From TrEMBL:
It comes from the Eukaryota. It holds the Pfam family Syja_N. Residues 154-329 form the SAC domain. Keywords: Hydrolase, Membrane. The keyword Flavoprotein does not apply. It is found in: Endomembrane system. This is FIG4 phosphoinositide 5-phosphatase. Its main location: membrane. One of its GO terms (biological process) is phosphatidylinositol dephosphorylation. GO terms for cellular component: endomembrane system. The gene is FIG4. It comes from Homo sapiens.
Length: 329
């Protein structure tokens, strides 16, 4: 199992992508839209991904002033006195990641979500729709005849089918693991939370929910269990470059809630494949189509991890852990 880290919060819940000819500006905010972060993405580089994160937390007024200056500056440079120099490209709810085939990089954004469950005050969402945007400007694009074929292969993975995420709950781990992180010794928790809060902004601040220091609600996002993360490779290129508030990890499986019974299934990204093409185990010991299923029961009277009562039952299934295959004929 991965080493536990301090509870942190994936704070960026609302995003807007603005574009100029030379840059994309990704503006992300907390749900209350009181605190903002900004990523600058270079569009003049045909092959490499160049991202700048100043790691500054902006107020709403500051980000408006920044966008105003960018608009004015780009109109002046382009000599467009009668039109805008900064265009609003798309609104989104999270970054799935970045991918490159034979040309330049694409950014994949979650553009539609649906709330599926609530565990201890933490919302779990299903990805309903995504948008894949090519980053380099057409003026620097170096075309390749096979690019469209690789793009179609990538898009065969339907991201609107059974992919789930949470801004404040680590879906890659079981409830038992997450509550172990939450219930660390108070002195250690306070020390590590204070260190993290210097860098992260709290998605629950300004929303009437008590945060650390009491029977409150705060994000549980320890180091994810990459076995159950499906966009890990898409985020690897920016993981060391951007603030962790931008990193949103997605699982593939199922999440449903009826009354206060929650069922979560996490499908392993290791040795995955269709039923007849992947059987048995690989040389690393990963078995085909491994799924960890967790059933969670919670006290309906209190929706808080620190005050409510919870029960979790975990099962793991997968292919027979031997070297074997099956004739699909």
């Amino acid at each position: 199992m991965p080493t536990a880290a301090a509870p942190i919060i994936s704070s960026v819940q609302k995003l807007v992508l603005y574009e100029t000819r030379a840059r994309y500006f990704l503006v992300g905010s907390n749900n209350a839209e009181t605190k903002y972060r900004v990523l600058k993405i270079d569009r003049t580089e045909p092959k490499d991904l160049v991202i700048i994160d100043d790691r500054h937390v902006y107020t709403q007024q500051e980000v408006r002033e920044l966008l105003g200056r960018l608009d004015l500056g780009n109109r002046t440079k382009m000599g467009q006195k009668g039109s805008s120099g900064l265009f609003r490209a798309v609104s989104a709810f999270g970054v799935v990641g970045f991918v490159r085939f034979l040309e330049g990089y694409y950014i994949v954004l979650i553009t539609k979500r649906r709330k599926m469950a609530d565990i201890g005050g933490h919302a779990i969402y299903k990805v309903e729709d995504t948008n894949m945007i090519y980053i380099p400007n057409d003026s620097v694009r170096v075309t390749h005849p096979d690019e469209a074929r690789y793009l179609r292969i990538f898009q065969n993975v339907d991201l609107s089918s059974n992919f789930y995420f949470s801004y404040s709950y680590d879906l890659s781990h079981s409830l038992q693991y997450n509550l172990t992180v939450l219930r660390m010794p108070l002195e250690m928790l306070k020390s590590e939370m204070t260190q993290n809060r210097q860098e992260s902004f709290d998605i629950f601040e300004d929303e009437g929910l008590i945060t650390q220091g009491g029977s409150g609600v705060f994000g549980i996002c320890s180091e994810p269990y990459m076995k159950y993360v499906w966009n890990g490779e898409l985020l690897d290129i920016i993981k060391s470059t951007v603030h962790r508030d931008w990193l949103l990890y997605i699982i593939h499986g199922f999440c449903g809630q009826s009354m206060y019974v929650t069922l979560i299934a996490r499908r392993s990204s290791k040795f995955a494949g269709t039923r007849f093409l992947k059987r048995g185990a690989n040389c690393e010991g990963d078995v085909a189509n491994e799924v960890e299923t967790e059933q969670i029961l919670c006290d309906a009277s209190v929706m808080s991890f620190t005050a409510g009562s919870y029960s979790s039952y975990v099962q793991v299934r997968g292919s027979v852990p031997l070297y074997w295959s099956q004739d699909i004929s």
